[in-house]
Structures are given as structure tokens and as C-alpha cells.
Amino acid sequence: MGSVQIVLRKKPNSQGKYPLAIRITKNRKSSFIHTGQYINHDFWDSSNHKVKRSHPNSKMINHFLLKKLSEANERLLQSEISNKDTSLRNIKKDIIGIEKEDFGAFAKKYLERLKSRNQYYQFKNEKGRIERFLTYTKKKDLSFDEITPTLLKKFETYLIRHRQVAPRTAVNYMIPIRTIYNQAISDGIADRNKYPFGRGRYQIKFPESDKVGLNIEELQKLEGANDLTTAQQHALNVWLMSFYFAGMRMTDIIQLKWSDLTDGRLRYRMSKNDKLVSLKIPEKAQTILYRYKKLPANENNLVFPELRNIDLENTRVLKTRIKTVTRNFNRHLKKIAKQVGIEKNLSMHIARHSFGNISGDTIPLQTLQKLYRHSSITTTMNYQSNFISKDEDEALDKVVSF
After folding, report:
1. What residue spans of 139-229 are helical by DSSP H?
2. Interacting residues of 190 by C-beta distance below 8 A, sequence separation 6+
3. pTM above threshold 0.85
4. Cys staple from 141: which of 39, 102, 175, 176, with CB 3.0 to 4.6 Å?
5. What is the b/e burial string over 108-118, where b = at least 16 CB atoms within 10 angstroms of the residue's CB?
6. 191 to each of 25, 37, 89, 143, 231, how far by Cα in Å?
7. Sequence ranges of the domains in the chain
8. Cα–Cα dist 37/64, whole Å
9. Nearby residues of 75 by Cβ (< 8 Å), 6 or more positions away
């Protein structure tokens, strides 16, 4: 006979919280059903398989978990009493009611998990993409079996030809469909044998992107820019700070605090992957920081003023504000580029590309990996390949110079 139990999974999400799941065990083999709940590891009582009372919502979560566990036990008993195929896979199907779960219903759960993890920006974008896909299929209850390679290829063609989106944007539509399908397989909702993605089926191919960064001459033009408005100079200061700190992302640079700057070093935790960063403060960055040190102090201890009057703990408000600030900065940067004679599309993100372009092949990849905080050296190699062309240029000259 099989058994079910509430457990805390070992792999945390991007916020360092761990998922709570129902574990089904049969013949010493286990499978898991996600509950959509995440908690910090310290709040889990592994002996009693419940959330500790020290958690602010322990009563509500434990009540929810007990209800799910009771439902799972009931369906497990019904499955075994009815003498059905009691393999682990079929038990899992009976527990979660596979026949009632279509793509749209499962997608709603997926989106709710994003929202519960405060991933509002991703939630908003993927909600629109999923709704576009469902509208295209004209199916009220689209089953996973109906998502075929042919349907996916037709949807891609529709996006590019009729919606006139870029190929890279079309890829962004396909990724959440694949993610939801993979999660449905993990939960026993979808049949792995009918998986429509992968070699010989529908492959998600990322089009090559041309990452363009500024060169040294263009950087010097920016550093020497004058006759700028106050708003333009501020946008340029933030851009230069991003560049001086190895292409520090906008989300991190705009949340920079004075407490992050100690003993001549910048120490902060990256918002994208939660990794700790420690960098020397270059003299050029120190000069800019000195100007902002003269501003009145604020309770959030922020270097730049854009986020001083908002609740930094409110993820939705914070991300919306950063998006607005980035848009305003980019508008000022385009005007600056035109004024100093730079034809490239100057934006906050190009600061990271500019660092890669100027570093070229002069800095060892292992060092660049540390500066970029890439998890894999392969990621660094792929990123930096956009800016390294010395070997190819020399090879070309050898062939054509006769």
C-alpha cells in the first residue's frame, strides 16, 4: 500500500525559500505533488512534518496542508480499493485528478505561484503570453495532449507573421508554455510520452543577438560631456557607475546604499541570483559618489534619490518604480548620445555590454566570470564571444591580404 506525507523539498527557489510538497511513496519509490507553498528552511518542523508556530502564517498554512494531505489520503484509498493499476504514476494521477486538469487551469496555478513569490514583473508578462496562446487555440479547455509540435509551430508563425513580433519575442511566448508543460509532467498531469518539445519535435531556438557596447573613445566622450541638464547629468552619473562596477545591473545600482560601500569596496547581493559581490571602488566611481554624499541623508540610506520615498519591501511597487526610472534614464541617455556624437543606441543596459566590449580578450575569462558573477564559465564565454573578434580579424587579413 502507498503512503502520503507533507515534506519540505531540498531545492530552494530564487528567493531562498523551499517548496512544500506531498510525497507519495509506493514500493520504496517516491513522487511529489507541489502545493504551491514556500517557506524558509528554519520554519519547517521536520519531526512533525508541519510549519513551526514561529512562522507568522503557520496556522493557515498547516490547515491548508492538512486539508491537502487528507484529500490525498482519501484518493489514495479509493484508488487502491477500486483495484486499479496501483503503480506510483497512476496513484499520483488519482490523487491530483488528472482528468480535470487542463492547460489553462494548470497555467493559472503556475501564475499564482509566481505572484506568491513576488515575481510580479514575470507574472504580468507571462500572463499575457499564456492568454494570447489560449486565445489563438480557440479552446476553452485545452488539454495537454492537444499541445502538439504542429500547434506550437503554427502559433510561432502566427506571432511572427500576423502579430509581427520579433523572433526573440516569439521565443518568450514559447518558454512559459514549455515550463508549464514540464511542471505538469512532474505533477503527473501531463503524459511525458506526448511531450511536444525537444529534438525531432518543436525546438525553442534562441536567435543570435548582436550585443553592441561602446568603445573607449565613446566612453571618453561620455565622461567629458558638458552642458547637460541636471536630469541628464544624473542619468549619465548612474550609467557611468554601472559601467565602473563591471556592468552592474540597473536593479542593483539604483538600490545602492551607503552601507554597501565600506573600506574602499562595494559589497552587495545581486537581485538576479542572490550572489554576493565584492568589488574595489575605482577612483572614477569615488568622484561621482562624492557628489551624492552631499545630498541630505534618507532613512533607506540610498545613494541615489529615485527610491527614497517608497517601501523597498513592497516588491510590486519597487519593480514598477525601477521600470519607470529606467525608461526615464534611457530617454535622457539618448539625448546625451546625440549631443556628444555617439550613434549607438545608448541605454542603461548597454553599460554592461560596454564593459564586455572594452575588456575584450585582454582579461582572463575566469576573472570576467567573477566580475559578471556568472555561475558557469560557459555563460561567460558565450557572453564575451559577442565582443571578441581579434582572432577572426587576423585570420581574415591573412586570407585576403595577398
Report:
1. 149-157, 167-186, 216-223
2. 144, 145, 181, 184
3. no
4. 102
5. ebbbebbeebb
6. 20, 24, 10, 11, 56
7. 1-96, 97-207, 216-356, 360-402
8. 10
9. 94, 95, 97
Determine if residue 148 is left, alpha or beta; phi over 0 gives left, psi from -120 to 50 gives alpha, anything else beta: beta
Instruction: Round to whole Å and give the CA distance between 199 and 183.
Output: 19
d(CA 97, CA 95): 6
* Encoded amino acid at 14, one letter: S
* Cβ-proximal residues to 237 (8 Å cutoff; 6+ apart), any chain: 288, 291, 292
- Yes or no: say if 349 and 239 are a contact pair by the CB < 8 Å rule: no
| Chain mean position to CA 125 | 12
Q: How far apart are CA 68 and CA 309, in angstroms?
A: 42
If one looks up domain 97-207 in CATH, what number appears? 1.10.150
d(CA 18, CA 226): 51
Tens of pLDDT, residue by residue over 9-24, are 888 876 778 888 888 8
Q: Which three cell numbers stand for residue 1?
A: 500500500
Looking at domain 216-356, its CATH superfamily turns out to be: Intergrase catalytic core (1.10.443.10)
Closest to 372 measured CA to CA, from 388, 393, 351, 400: 351
Q: 235: which 3 cell numbers? A: 542619468
Q: Which amino acid is at 117?
A: R
Q: Establish how many alpha carbons lie within 13 A of residue 33's alpha carbon, considering only the half-sphere containing its beta carbon.
A: 26
Cβ pair 133, 152 in contact under 8 A? no
Query: Which range among 7-16, 228-237, 324-333 shows the weakest confidence by mean pLDDT?
Result: 7-16
